[in-house]
Design a protein that fits this description.
By secondary structure, the protein is mainly alpha-helical. The protein has helices at about 5-15, 25-50, 55-60, 65-85, 85-90, 105-125, 125-130, 140-145; strands spanning about 95-100, 145-150. It has one domain (about 20-150). A two-stranded antiparallel ribbon has the order 1-2.
Amino acid sequence: MRFRKLKKQTKQKREPRVQVLYASYPDRIKALITDTFMIYAPILYLIAYVIMGGKDAFQSSQLAPLIGVTLYGLIYAVLLAKFGQTPGKKAYNIKVLDDKTFENISFLRAFIRFIAFLFSATILFGLLTPFYRKDKKALHDIICNTVEIQIKD
């Protein structure tokens, strides 16, 4: 077979690429701040003032912040698994999807992603990786094979 024909066949066999618009890092940070105020702050308020009776009891407890973070992680994972978005991500038209199939991720994978986010935020390196990658993935996205994309209204 001649080279030209072989070259044409290989071009035809390639799958068309899907154009993906990755979410910008400032929008991702704004979505995180929005989620913190809409989900995490009410959880902490309920634990501190309704369950524990005041801020002094909350501050002296080691278990209360852990319960708050765990509840936030569970709510976050449920929202990502069901809708692919949290309220903050919805406000900025961001969706968290599987990086290969572009479908919603499972609850377990979303919860592991949340735990990986806590780890990557702790070491700060994980939050700086989007500045060095074309696909703008943070460490928790790399670990869980997810991607945050910009969706159209």
